[in-house]
Amino acid sequence: MDNTEIDRSEQDARLKTKMSRIKNKIIIMSGKGGVGKTTVAVNIAHALAASGLKVGILDTDIHGPNIAKMLGIEKKVLCGLDGGIVPVEVTPNLFAVSMALTGYNPDQPVIWRGPMKMGVIKQFLSDVIWGNLDYLIIDSPPGTGDEPLSVCQLIPDVTGAVIVTTPQDVAVLDARKTVLFAHQLNIPVLGVIENMSGLICPHCKKEIDLFKTGGGEKAARELKVPFLGKIPIEPEMVISGDDGKPYISGRKETKAALAINDIIKKIIKKNE
Description:
Elements (H helix, E strand, L loop, with lengths): L2 H18 L1 E8 L7 H14 L4 E5 L7 H5 L7 E3 L2 E3 L1 E4 L2 E4 L16 H14 L5 E7 L6 H9 L5 E6 L3 H16 L4 E12 L6 E2 L6 H9 L3 E7 L1 H8 L12 H16 L2
Helix pairs in contact: 1-4, 2-9, 4-5, 6-7
């Protein structure tokens, strides 16, 4: 066995050990971009942490890492120790890792082929010192390419995937592909979330079917996977994301916050 094989074997052992200390490993996926997957991932992670659980969130989008911006930690940098990489603390119960936290220039495109991206994702999984976590939320890039494939194949005992879509036919079509992608890799599908399901008018508070409604629920029913719920669009959700403050923080009675909390209850119940 040469040195490369020894190094790879040692890294695989570290990955297995690190992941064994995490109770639930959930991949947030989508068939296409622009459906609000990262917003959903950030708010789920933040709400789980706020409920007293210890949570990590891993951004595996190498080309467009947005989690740091949405959590308000984009100016922080990951620290390295002899034992590995220390994640950035967002709150006492929430920790984050992302390419955006490595000191790279956010205006500079990352022009990498698949093997390099897979190497970074594997390093995050094997070398980050998460410690004991109740949940690791993995925000995967859209589609069924290198990054989501690497995550699904590298992480042992994945708890399941959550598929985010919008009600539009095009988004639902791609979400169906993502569900089948998870099935082919033997990843349990925890459920489908229909995001942007209606716009809450900031003036009259009535709901407008901006992108139609019900497409995600119909797809979940046809594919025989759970439907976790609908999250409406609220203008404040966009503002909070840009300001680096998870929308659900400090909001309990809005329709979107209630929907997210209901989804989280379903996820926790499935993993009890």
